[in-house]
Amino acid sequence: MTESTALSLLRRLRETLTARSPYCSGTLELSPANFELYYGKEDASSNRFINLSQTANTEALGKLAQACDAAKFGRGTETVLDETYRKAGKMDAERFVTRLDVEDIGLLKAVNLGLLPRRDHKLNIRAELYKLNVYGEGAFFKPHRDTPRGKTMFGSLVVVFPTAHEGGALVLRHRGDEWTFDSAAMLAGRANSLAYVAFFSDVEHEVMPVVSGHRVTLTYNLYYGDRRKLAPTARLKVRTPINSNTYEVKDALGALLSDPTFMPEGGTLGFGLNHSYAFPATCGDADWNPFKGLSRWLKGSDAVLYKAWTAMGMEPKFRLVSEHDIVLDHMVNLADWGQVECVERALLKRHDGLVLKSKVFSGKDGALWREGDKYEDGDEYEGEIGGDSLTVYWVTNPSGGGPRSDYLHYGNEASLGYFWTRVCILVDVPGVDERCKTLGRESGKTAREEEDEDEDEEADEEEDEEQFKEQFEEEEDEDENEGEDEEDEAKNEKD
């Protein structure tokens, strides 16, 4: 059976949204001074120097490895040493000095161009030096994810020096896809070059066993900063496509909406976010809004999708979907309610929640959609409880974690319960006649009109950024005063 045009276009959009790689990598040739490293402890007699170019000798690398501590990692709320899961050496940033300046050499520019959507190329990203790691023969780190250290942290940058080594490839995994960053192969025969890889913080990664030699890395935490112009760096060789699907997403979406057979009467399209974001573990403030500033910090294809909708004159909205399939336009703090007997009733009656009726992508036998899985008590919400419903056609299914709230559940006896949510993007798509008029107006705009809109959008985003920072200022101050060194170590150690 030949697929309908609408089905082909919908399939194309789904594939395009997941086609963007959540990382970028490359190599950079540098002057010898950039490979100089000084390290040691308080005792000046133990301070040492090493040049981490390919000419570094085995004895000097061995002394660097001996000066490192055994690398621990976070397991739950604890920091543990388990060499069956991670075997490597680490040195904290205060114990060494490097001549390498990732901003000065243009590496942050490459990360901006290779990892962030086109709309964010005016952003200045900030790199915070985190650790030095040495992986000797037999060293490895099994699959793990990095924990964001703040609301504006979006990823990690790993720089690999050209010290002789085999093995130790970094394997990246995200939503069923896998990529391999083989620094040993990339740096073979390149004495004065380094390799780099930058990836979003929710990407799972694994360091494969080092077969021989020493794999020496610096890891940086990446944060969003202010806006500024970025110029390209000629010495960089980027291995992954830059902005590989920014325009493809917009084109695929525009083609789908222009098809008169696709949702001719209109409806609500839903998109699960492709990346995870740093929401607090629990919500303790009824006025806290998880959506404020979120559009400013979207990653990868999430940012591209949001921008594509706004460019077409339509309004993408962030919404929460509860574990009971109730859609909310704000976060709810159940702890303020005292004892709660029926969470669903409270969400529907007190907070204008909507019972979710899901239609998910099918693609089988020429069908665009099929009935989604239904929460077992969903019909009861509409019946006995009396909740209104919302039908959502999911282009990509909602997934990943969002904010949660704890509450005191009232039953045969009181117990502590948790109200879980997922964040998604919903868009109310008008009928074909109205949306074609909207698309026609957008496509007919002059370059000056689009430029003016971009400037207005940037101003709005900067205002959102200030509100976002103010909103979490108190929370971040509290975080800094709690636990400090021990809690920092409990966050996952990086490569």
Question: What's this entry about, in short?
Answer:
This protein is of the alpha+beta class.
Topology (elements, then pairings):
Elements lengths: L4 H13 L5 E7 L6 E4 L8 E4 L6 H10 L1 E2 L2 E3 L2 E3 L5 E2 L1 E4 L3 E3 L8 H9 L7 E13 L4 E5 L8 E8 L4 E3 L2 E5 L2 E5 L1 H5 L5 E8 L3 E4 L2 E4 L1 E13 L8 E3 L7 H13 L8 E6 L27 H12 L4 E7 L3 E3 L10 E2 L2 H8 L3 E8 L7 E3 L6 H8 L3 E8 L7 E6 L5 E15 L2 H12 L3 H35 L2 H7 L5
Verbal overview:
This protein has 495 residues and is an alpha+beta fold. It has helices spanning 5-17, 58-67, 107-115, 183-187, 246-258, 300-311, 343-350, 378-385, 432-443, 447-481, 484-490; strands spanning 23-29, 36-39, 48-51, 69-70, 73-75, 78-80, 86-87, 89-92, 96-98, 123-135, 140-144, 153-160, 165-167, 170-174, 177-181, 193-200, 204-207, 210-213, 215-227, 236-238, 267-272, 316-322, 326-328, 339-340, 354-361, 369-371, 389-396, 404-409, 415-429. Helix content is 27%, strand content 33%. The model is unreliable at 376-381, 408-414, 444-451 and 467-492 (pLDDT under 50). Strand 28 (404-409) and strand 29 form a beta hairpin. The strands form 6 sheets. It has an 8-stranded antiparallel β-sheet with strand order 4-8-10-19-12-16-1-20. Strands 21-27-25-23-22-29 form a 6-stranded mixed beta barrel, surrounded by 4 helices. It holds the Pfam family 2OG-FeII_Oxy_3. This is Fe2OG dioxygenase domain-containing protein. One of its GO terms (molecular function) is metal ion binding.
